[in-house]
Amino acid sequence: GFLSAASGRALLQTQAECVPGRVDCDNPDAFEEEFCAPYNGYYTLPGDLQWVLGLSATVGIIMAFFIGANDAANSWATSVGSGALPLRAALILGGIMEWAGALSLGYGVAKTVTKGTAKVTDPQCFACGFCDSHMTVFMIGMMSALFSAAIFLLLATATAMPVSTTHAIIGAVVGSTVSGVGFGCLEWKFDGGLSGIIASWVISPVVSGLIAMGAYYVTYYTILEPCALMRWLRLPNRRTNALWGQPILIFIQTFVLVFLILLKSKPTKGWELSLQAGIAMAIAGGVFIFALVFWRPFLRYHLPSNKRLRALEGGGKEEEKPDPTGVAGVVWRVIDWTLLRNEPFIDFGAIFTRWGAALERTCPSFCCVPIHLLGRLFSALGHALTCGGRCNGVDDADAKFERLASKASTDGAAKSVNGDDALKKPSQVTMNGDADASSGDDESAVPGSDEASSSAGSDTDAKPSETPSGLLAQREANIDKETVAEQKLALDTLKNPLDKERNKAAKADLIGGVVRTVTPHALRTADEESEDALWTFSWLLVFTAAWESYAHGANDTGNATGAFTGVYTIFADGLNACSKGETPVWIMAIAGFFVALGICILGYRVITTIGFKLTDINFQRGYCVEFGSTLSVVIATILGLPVSTTHCQVGAVVFVGCAAFGPRHVAWGLFAKIAAAWVLTVPLAAVISGALTAAFRQAVNAQN
After folding, report:
1. How far apart are the two ends of the chain, measured CA to CA in Å?
2. CA dihedral over 174, 175, 180, 182, signed as positive or negative
3. How far is Cα 91 from Cα 94, in angstroms, rounded to an integer?
4. Residues 360, 369: Cα–Cα separation, whole Å
5. What does residue 205 show for φ and ψ, rounded to 5 degrees?
6. What confidence tens digit (pLDDT) does each residue in 100-156 have?
7. How far apart are CA 281 and CA 257, in angstroms?
8. Sorting pLDDT into bands at 50, 70 and 90, what band is 537?
């Protein structure tokens, strides 16, 4: 006989030989069985695998970093692509909201990352609680899954492909399961299984895209271009419709966002659906009242047209304030460097390019061929990773400028419009803030002056419109014309992109020059009323992105902490740790910090892909993308459909681009690459994880 203590009572049991399916005598639930057997000792006990715990913690941190660099950056692509926020401000705000979400609502029961695989208590698989337990294999499988997901996300981020981190970790767990206990332990059912994950490759982008497209048509024909019904209701004014529509849109978006947070966050996801909806409705109602009483007057006061009117009343231009000095100057420079620049904090492409050039110069002799090859490799990698002007969408125009400026400087034809030695890049003229966008107001630096014209004409090898001076002169000429045809063309920018290369300086300035404005390029329209209406969406877009980022931090940070919590729980509690472990707040705080760090350092890669390269994004279209993405996740969560926030975001961008411009103005080649990356996510992560599990499994085999 064998005396076993379990659940506070002793029971005489018969100790038998260990066979598959026989309960472990140390299992707290062993008293329910007539026979039990001690652990067969085939694998090393989890408590002796300190190296597994250490490696898992390290790789988990790395994965959290790449969750921020790839998945978490999705929320801010439209804000940056539309010009609502500078890149650095979006990165910082995104990092703060992700960390806050992880810290405040990410703790509790560890997120399940074993979708698509059998439960650990299945005696035919990991056999947790049985005498032939494979929980040590499960432990190294979770570590291998972290390794695999981190490697996959590194590759995806390096190629600027937005992928689902949830699918990456699930695919990695699938691979470790197959390698550890066999194909028979996979779950292919739709609800919570691999079939649902495969279906989500189509469900996510289509559902989100349809919702976003509907939001686009509703907001466009009620606010930006009021339809016949709106005119019949005597609501033909775009500005008025926008000011009254913003509180309504904020109410709807707040309800969706709060509902999403309650549905996805660990402490609240188990609440009754009616309770979650009631809380979301109450919070949204409070925000609506606030928006009606305070936010609407704020928007009216700060409308671009009202700002220009106040400037005219003040003497034709706003009073120029001297640059702050002393402590205020230092603070301002810190703010400028941290928040106001449209460039990444670290441009790894430029770094690798410099390293490559240095290596190629190191040794000129033939014996240094390997060093030269390494230098070429670094240079190629730098070219692939560089951000350049692509972070604000003007890379092509600036590259063209550099070539022309270099040519002009060779024959002495390059002169600045104000007597300086350097000319401004097209991006500085068209997109870089108040002074550049309104440079036509300064008579001392008019690009269309005789001096500039003669300078442009002196270059006989290039067309006037293609020289740097010619590009500047063309801008001033377009401002002066303001013909009916140009106004119609500018009005069409609400519906149609400028052209395939939307940031070419000449075309952008033809549109932007119709109305003199100090606002970003995305706002240049044919009349102030349309400009004001479109501008109101910028605040709503940033509001939506911020809280979507908060919800993402509360839920998807668990993609890294869920697997690590599994390792930690098994290490601490042993072979019979069969239930989900609790993820402590301190683990979520650390993981959330590295998610935030990932956004700040490498988030610009995915932001550039979604925000600039798929289609043209303005404030209204960006808002519709975010609304479609968040609402589709809420609906899918309620219905139990598997969706990915990344897939929803990309699908919404593509559908809104088709609705606004037609299919020809969507980068289908890029979308095909992104879709291919989605399809490869699960199998590639599974292969890497399976190989690692097979290798580590030999290291924990106690029979070796």
Report:
1. 32
2. positive
3. 5
4. 9
5. -65, -35
6. 888 887 765 556 666 667 778 888 888 888 888 888 999 999 999 999 999 999 999
7. 11
8. very high
Convert the pLDDT of each residue in 226-264 to its tens digit: 888 888 888 888 999 999 999 999 999 999 989 988 887
Q: Which two tokens stand for residue 700?
A: 């924990």
- Rounded (5°) CA angle 199-202-208: 120
Taking the C-alpha atoms of 674, 677, 678 and 683 in order, what is their torsion angle to the nearest 10 degrees?
A: 170
Would you say residue 326 has pLDDT above 90? Answer: no
Length reported for the chain: 704
The contacts of residue 697 (CB under 8 Å, 6+ apart) are 137, 140, 179, 180
Could you give the angle at which helices 558-573 and 50-66 cross, rounded to 10 degrees?
Answer: 170
Neighbours of 467 (CB within 10 A): 26
- Cβ burial of 444 (10 Å; 0-12, 13-18, 19+) is exposed
Angle between helices 505-512 and 395-410 (to 10 degrees): 110
For 479-491, the pLDDT digits (tens) are 444 444 444 444 3
Instruction: Please state, in angstroms and rounded to a whole number, the distance separating the CA atoms of residues 242 and 292.
Output: 12
Give the whole-number percent of the chain exceeding pLDDT 70.
64
- Helix, strand, or coil (residue 574): coil
CA-closest candidate to residue 391, choices 105, 33, 80: 80
**pLDDT on residue 392:** 45
Residues 535, 21: contact at Cβ < 8 Å?
Answer: no
